[in-house]
Amino acid sequence: MIFLFILTAVLSYIIGSLNYSIIFSKIFMNTDVRSSGSGNAGSTNMMRNYGWKAGVITLLTDFLKTFVVTFGTWILFTIYYPVWVQPAVAVSGLFCVLGHCFPVFFSFKGGKGVAVGAITSLLVDWRCFIVIVASFLIFVAISKHISLGSVIGAIAFPASFAFFNDFHTLQGSISFTVTLIICLLVVFLHRKNIVRIFKGTESKLSFKKI
Prior knowledge:
- By secondary structure, the chain is mainly alpha-helical.
- It has ten helices and no strands.
- It has one domain.
- The chain is globular, with a radius of gyration of 17 Å.
């Protein structure tokens, strides 16, 4: 079982390191998305620099790579160690987030893990995914800050997991710990955005730009 955990974690990190915002910007725009806008290698910066189509395509590919590793992990552990499915999927998602944020193929400078963390929650507990998406949409609609919605969505992951699950088992405790780590990582990577929000200098979502 430990070998399977290590195997899925390594594969998840490698696949997570395939940051498509960097790949697409280099292939189709002949530039690096990290050299423009916020400098972040994510779908939001792609949208702001290259239009909504580029942002949506990037978002979909981030979702797809995360789904591949988490669902693949779900299948493997369902077959061999069904009791450990949830924590295994959570760990797989965490390493995919780490790969996305610190990609080995792109000098360890990637995105902020929002989309990857969200799709991870879908396989860990679909109810958490609904809470996360709802929280994100509500706070973006109110504030027009995608970064604020992202931070609130990240916080909603461990909070909703704790609400819907119990910790009477080792598996539940491990899963919650992983959701908390993902949350803290996303919030940490948004620290500059949080400062700008308090200063009133954070960029707001504008459909005129897309």
